[in-house]
Amino acid sequence: MSVERSGVPALARGFLARRKRVLVRLGAWSLLESAQTFLGGYGVAMALDHGFLAGHTGTGLAWLAVAAVAVICGGAATGGVFRGLADLVEPLRDGLIRRVADRALTEAIEAPSRAADGAVVSRLTNQTELARDSFAGLVLVARSFVFTMVGVLIGLGALAPELLIVVLPPLVLGLALFLATLAPMAARQRVFLDADEALSTQLGAVAEGLRDVLAAGAGQSVAARTHALIEAEARAARVLARWAAARTVALGVAGQLPVLLLLVTAPWLLRQGLTAGALLGALTYLTQALLPALHTLMNALGAAGTRLLVVLDRLTSGSRSALPGTPVAEKGRPSTERGAPARVEIRGLTFAYGPNAQPVLRDLDLTVEPGEHLVVVGPSGIGKSTLAALIAGLLAPDRGEIRVAGRPVAPIPAEPSRRRVLIPQQAYVFTGSVRENLLYLCPDGASPAALTATAAEVGLLPLVHRLGGFDAPVDPAALSQGERQLIALGRAHLSPAPLVVLDEATCHLDPAAEDRAERAFAARPGTLIVVAHRISSAHRADRILVLDGVHAVCGTHRELLDRSPLYRDLVGRWHAERI
């Protein structure tokens, strides 16, 4: 753990140095508490030796009254301690919040295109409160332990110096064992906070992008990743719990072993002249003062102390580490490689929307050769989009079979296939950067050159420049339908899929932009099926499929002008509209 490198100790020293008056007040109240500790054991010893055992009941009661008054004064001192503690804790929290907010704003100004850091929420809320509570607990128990131990040791020395010979060795050994666990515990605490921050980021991203997750059919993968992060945090918590068990051993050595040694060596101590009252006073010091203070100290330092160091390191560090799952741009990454163009075979395809409905497609046979450019035309509602959805696997045929590259098409998401891409009329763009939207269908990424080439070929590059580059954030609500279509077209063009299906995917583009995009896909290696929005798309195709609701006719533009009255009518109407 690199706490020293983070500058946390220097920051802590500077923070405390500016609050010397508060520390002096805390020390004064703590001295009053140590007086209570001293009189607690010493008063019991004096009450027994000089009072009850000597036959002077009044003297014994007087010494017990002194111890009781010391307890009352200690209560008043505790109130003063908490008031002084507030003067330390609240400025710390306020300073940390300002530091985190300043850092987040600075990063936003320096890199406006960078996605917002969801972990800032965890730092501003959970981690600053952890730091505040941990710091308060640490100051409280460390101060209490130091002054309690001072009172106990002075009291033991005043009763009999031999008591220190019995108590000090196990106390020092137990404290040494405990201190040896702090460094590994701090490292484990860092792992736990990393896991907590990653989980917080993941949950924030899922909540914000739930629409994206559902639309992309990524529910299972997102759930699996979230479950993995939850398990990672649980594992880190279990490791911390095991180190907490090590604190129990140290507590036993430092707190319980002195009591046991005191009882074992009692005969020897009595032979050295130790009185019964001094022995009882020593037990009072150990069981009523030192042991509770040790227990509180070890719990606070073992948990709150290590947690405080790690949290302060994270809150005050100027560096921002990448979180799990953060996309990282890599220079020199190879361009996307596509497979061989896919052959599409449709045999006896029949589909109806419901058991009693008339089939939209009936006994359709069609073969699209590898690398071929096929355009599907026909009146509105005739089944063109249905055919595109069947080829993409979004719908399952009632009868017949569809094969892509020799394999039957399985419904999505049962088959997370990279063999085909469908871009529908309502193009989907998710919240994220332009780069993330374009690379969504590229499991192996793409080189910057391939990214730029794709954007230029489909006509997306002007929009990329207007948004601020490939790393600029995308707000889907701020884009026009045509701009969303351009981004979706770029995503499909860049993908390695050997089959692309465009279902009126250019309907919101002007004719020139549509022509440019379709020519880019026609030049792209792979098989292309286009459900046409304008009949001009047919002029760019190798073949055209005409759906008329009775039977399908497929051929070239010239062939269909002779064979299909419907196609002649569509071409004639389109020319009339242009005139």
Automatic annotation (TrEMBL):
KW Nucleotide-binding (keyword) present: yes
Location in the cell: Cell membrane
Keywords of the record: ATP-binding, Membrane, Nucleotide-binding, Transmembrane, Transmembrane helix
CDD domains for the chain: ABCC_MRP_Like
Limits of the ABC transporter domain: 344-573
Keyword ATP-binding: yes
Identification of the protein by name: ABC transporter ATP-binding protein
Taxonomic path: Bacteria, Bacillati, Actinomycetota, Actinomycetes, Kitasatosporales
